[in-house]
Design brief:
The chain has 383 residues and is an alpha+beta fold. Helix content is 51%, strand content 15%. A 4-stranded mixed β-sheet has the order 1-4-5-8. Strands 2-3-7-6 form a 4-stranded antiparallel β-sheet, with no helix packed on it. Strands 9-10 form a two-stranded antiparallel ribbon. Bound molecules: flavin-adenine dinucleotide. The site of flavin-adenine dinucleotide (FAD) has 20 residues, from strand 1, strand 3 and helix 11.
């Protein structure tokens, strides 16, 4: 394994850094306070080719690979976890899964539009009473002529109220349990019987839209089915294998931001007549942040390089996702301690890092669910 980024990957990292500094940072403080999402920024990221790296050239991408894309994803998340999320909503979620399971028509219609951010994407699994236990979802699609009538409620859906194309997971044959789940591509804004509303009560990710989607006899054409009837669970698990990796790289970005902020602050703040960086306990805190952040990044890069070689790597992805999420929370928590009361203030960045980092332990399968996946791989009991 080569541990160095290529010149091309370093240039992509620089592109992401430049974009974040020029486009995200100038309004970040105001936007975080006002919970403002700027769709134009996501469109600019699409125009710069940030989402095209894992998309083949024939669908408007550059096919530079998972690792290259995740280098940018981490860099954007280092500045803003909220704007790291669109990598998932555009490509790691919807576009990749349409590429893997879609018809030619579906691929042509959606993949280039998602990669360029002409269309915004989302995926809807979670329901009010169904989270980790995906198969317990209650949303159903009942066949009616050339359509399926969809009824149910999805919640905590990133991009719910701004998305054009949603990968909807629901039951077409509930009695068959996981074999009775199917997936559809639903054009949310164009489908009658679909209503969306934002969730305004989030702890963090204030510049990223999250919401609910309600389906009331929403008529979805049969041609919108993704894959075959009954493939929904398989499609969902395949998708999560990709989105988890993006989540892990965003977590590394947040952990790195916590380390950077702590190093800077520790060299400025003085107590007992010296910089707090001179206290060994502070050095130990920052040394551990550094070690764990490096380790998390290597785990992400290992999984990404396996993905680039087309090797199935569910275990490696879950290991990376678990460790990176825990590292982000620990690093940002340590950063809050190092900043003292200023760590508790929204005028300094580390309280945002702490709030945002908690999302990584929940989304794309909680930390407990990652440990379940890791253990079932170890004991050869893959489900
Ligand atoms: C900011 C944000 C964005 C999100 N975006 C999306 C999205 O775009 N699309 C989408 O579909 N969902 C999304 N979600 C939802 C997210 O995927 C779920 O919250 C997550 O899967 C956990 O489900 P839950 O919240 O219902 O928790 P539950 O499943 O109810 O879990 C509660 C607790 O029990 C634990 N637990 C559950 N089962 C087990 C078990 N077998 N063994 C041990 N412990 C267990 C969990 O680890 C957790 O600690 C988002 C959530 C957040 C916070």
């Amino acid at each position: 394994m080569d541990f160095e980024l290529t010149e091309e990957q370093l240039a992509m990292k620089e592109l992401a850094k430049d974009f974040a500094e020029k486009e995200i940072l100038p309004t970040q403080e105001k936007d975080e306070k006002g919970h403002v999402f700027r769709p134009e920024l996501v469109k600019k990221m699409g125009a710069l080719g940030m989402f095209g790296g894992i998309i083949p050239e024939e669908y408007g991408g550059t096919a530079t690979g998972f690792l290259s894309t995740l280098v940018m994803n981490e860099e954007i998340a280092r500045h803003s976890a909220s704007y790291g999320l669109p990598f998932n909503m555009q490509v790691f979620g919807p576009a990749l899964i349409i590429l893997a399971f879609g018809t030619d028509e579906q691929k042509k219609k959606y993949v280039p539009a998602l990669a360029s951010a002409d269309m915004f994407g989302c995926f809807a699994i979670t329901e009010p009473n169904s989270g980790s236990d995906v198969v317990s979802m209650k949303t159903t699609a009942v066949e009616k002529g050339d359509f399926f009538a969809v009824n149910g409620q999805k919640t905590w859906i990133s991009n719910a109220h701004v998305a054009d194309a949603c990968i909807l997971y629901c039951h077409t044959d509930p009695q068959l349990k996981h074999k009775g789940m199917s997936a559809f591509i639903v054009e949310l804004k164009k489908t009658k019987g679909v209503t969306t509303r934002p969730i305004e009560t989030k702890l963090g990710l204030h510049c990223a839209p999250t919401g609910e989607i309600v389906f009331e006899d929403a008529m979805i054409p049969k041609s919108a089915m993704l894959g075959k009837r009954g493939d929904g669970f398989k499609i969902c698990m395949t998708m999560l294998d990709n989105t988890r990796l993006s989540c892990a790289s965003r977590a590394v970005g947040v952990a790195q931001a916590a380390e950077d902020a702590s190093v800077k602050y520790a060299q400025e703040r003085e107590q007992f007549g010296q910089k707090i960086a001179e206290f060994q306990m502070i050095q130990e805190q920052i040394a551990m942040m550094h070690v764990e952040c490096q380790a998390a990044r290597l785990l992400v890069q290992r999984a990404a390089s396996l993905k680039d070689k087309n090797v199935k790597c569910t275990l490696e992805v879950s290991v990376a996702k678990y460790y990176a999420a825990e590292t982000a929370v620990k690093a940002s928590s340590e950063a809050v301690k190092i900043f003292g009361s200023y760590g508790f203030s929204s005028e300094y960045p580390v309280e945002r890092l702490y709030r945002d980092s908690k999302s990584f332990q929940i989304v794309e399968g909680t930390s407990n669910i990652q440990k379940l996946i890791i253990a079932s791989n170890i004991f050869g009991k893959k489900k």
